[in-house]
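JOB MANIFEST
job_type = single_chain_structure
chain_count = 1
residues = 106
[input]
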Amino acid sequence: MSDINLEEMSLSELKSLNKQVTKAIDSYEARQKQLALTELEAKAKELGFSLSELAGASGSKAMRKSAPPKFRHPDDASITWTGKGRQPDWFKQAVMGGVSPDDLLI
């Protein structure tokens, strides 16, 4: 690799070099990821699986069960809340209006 004297370069040359280096780094990372993916796919196939089967096997979000509802809207029984996460506006308004959270339990 040739030695580059950065002190003698203009600002535009330095910026151009910076863009080239960034592009080279990104390209290198992409090639390394593709190489790793190819190796992993080959190993998974060798073991009788597809990579997507193995990647999805460790409890993906789609496989989670949703929690059963714990609270019900006082006026519309089709609107519920599990009691987890942010309180819905209807729950907050009901409690601020004097309704006990226990009265909203299912």
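[summary]
The helical segments are 11-46, 51-56, 89-96.
Residues 9 and 60 are 51 Å apart (CA to CA).
exit_status = 0
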